[in-house]
Amino acid sequence: MLELSLLFQIYPWSLWLSVTLLGLLVGSFLNVVIHRLPIMMEKEWHSECSVYFDDKITATTAEKFNIMVPRSACPKCQHQITAMENIPVISWLMLKGKCSSCSAPISARYPSIEILTALLSFVIAIYIPYGLQLFSALILTWCLVALTFIDIDKMLLPDQITLPLLWLGLLLNVSGTWVVATDAIIGAAVGYLSLWSIYWGFKLLTGKEGMGYGDFKLLAVFGAWFGWQSILAVVLLSSFAGAIIGITQIVLKKHTQGNPIPFGPYLAIAGWIYLIYGEELVNFYLRNFIY
């Protein structure tokens, strides 16, 4: 481990290359998570409903389905994806974006997520020093990619990802990996309660739900990782990102007014920016608005 650390210090490009290639592989896995985790959750909900309302809902027996099984297959012809057809980005290019069996189109989103994950991992490797901070920052980044696309698809931020991230942030900061433990604990509480208060205030005034509980938990994650000092910056950044993207979608007529917009992706973008530029953002705020 010491030799590897020394190698990365002498040749930083070797770290950047290794992390980028790892990001490509993880991006391929994230495509599976993004597609399968919501389905797994729906199956679990149906199963739970069948227990409590078995007189109204008939439980269906289905084959085993999780992140690992069954093997990935073409949704049209059920051709099972081989190892050579599952190489990140390269396989999609070699197949020209089509199934090798039935020529059904394969969405460009798959290689796009792989490339995005690789690029974000590359940036992390440049800005975050090698060690526990780098490893944890990569885990957070990969989880944020999965949460972003699941929320875009399903308007859902799964507890299976947000809650482990919350606890991981608190555990990391027991030893002060990112902030002191006190700031992390207060940050988690402030992150959750701030959006929770806005949610109930908006609901009491309008009778409508402005956001989901997953958004509260995701902001609590950033509080647990980066302390209570990060909450205001993350909220402001997410609102700014949401305004820009929302206005752009309306202008391009890709979104109509009145349709719900997931807030999770904007929180994820803001939290990731804070991961890279957190100290600079806090100093900028204090320098220009406090002192």
Structure, explained:
- With 291 residues, the chain is mostly helical.
- The protein is 69% helix and 0% strand.
- The protein has helices at 2-10, 12-52, 90-94, 109-127, 132-154, 159-172, 181-206, 213-226, 229-251, 264-290.
- Helix 6 (159-172) runs parallel beside helix 8 and helix 8 (213-226) packs across helix 9 (229-251).
- The longest helix has 41 residues, at 12-52.
- The chain is globular, with a radius of gyration of 21 Å.
- It starts with a helix and ends with a helix.
- Mean pLDDT is 87; it is low at 57-61.
Structure in a nutshell:
69% of the residues lie in helices and 0% in strands.
Task: Furnish the topology, listing elements before pairings.
Blueprint: H1 2-10, H2 12-52, H3 90-94, H4 109-127, H5 132-154, H6 159-172, H7 181-206, H8 213-226, H9 229-251, H10 264-290
Compute the number of strand runs.
0
The N- and C-terminal alpha carbons lie at a distance of 44 Å
What does the largest sheet look like?
A: none
Choose one word for the global shape. Answer: globular
Radius of gyration: 21 Å
Q: Could you give the order of the helices and strands?
A: HHHHHHHHHH
Q: Into which percentage range does the β-strand content fall?
A: under 5%
Report the total helices.
Answer: 10
Overall mean pLDDT? 87
Helix content: 55-70%
Helix-strand category? mainly alpha
Low-confidence stretches: 57-61
